[in-house]
Design a protein that fits this description.
The complex is a heterodimer. By secondary structure, chain A is of the alpha+beta class. Helix content of chain A is 34%, strand content 12%. Classes of the chains: A alpha+beta, B mainly alpha.
Chain lengths: 248, 46
Amino acid sequence: MKIWGLLYAVVLIMGASTSAAETLLQRGDYLGNGIVACGNCHTPQTPSGPAPGMEMAGQFLVEEKGLFKAFAPNITQDKKTGIGGWTDQQIITAIREGKRPDGTIIGPPMPIGLYRGLSDRDVRAIVAYLRQVKPVNNEMEKSTYQIPLPLAYGPPVTNVPDIPQTDKIAYGAYLAGPAGHCIECHTPFVKGRPDFANQLGAGGFPFHGPWGVSVSANITPMPMALPIMATLNWPRSYAPASDRTAPG
Amino acid sequence: MPPMGVYYYANISDGDMAAIVAYLRALEAKPNPQKPVQRGMANWYG
């Protein structure tokens, strides 16, 4: 019995040290290819997934008539058409404050308002990940806006601490908010902004794209809000990652 | 269905997914008569 207890303690310690030993690049790779999903906008998407060889090379995103026509820029390390010439701090400022090195403001649908809450460590991790994306020379068209963009999204962002993963709901809110921006797409917009105050997660936002039209689902616990949640009890009993399918 | 980033979300760890689910379960229920729909997918998926 003592031996099993000792083994259990050793396993716990090893697990803790493995987590603590996660490098910035490992964290950034996990975030960028997971919940943050940079490539979902910045990598050309095909019906069978991200276009091979074009990781982060940019793509046309969305046109909202009378509001804007948005292109996700090339964020590969290409110095001419990407962000290879930007410093780490300039990339961090672009992500969390929506300001490019030339002082211009990044417009929607980049979720700057939520990215302002990315922790210092996570935003540095994302930069580490972006630094190892291979350069792709791909000149992208500039986004155009008929709506006014703000002069700034707020004061400079400094000192954003990590959310403790032990606080499950707070960490889940961080993942679904600043990191994954789930709530950005799944909240109805009022006057060009997601109505977090009154309709957080209520869905109903239409997305027009090369795939046709998708209207985001209500992801609140409203009965029958998300049919798959109501009928299959998903994701309360969510499946292992290898078996998982997600609503789209 | 796009633009949901399923190709990326498949890489989310079980622990992180459980945290997201816990958060979603804690959200206040909000009615919305607008149903999730997808149209025109046949052109995208061929």
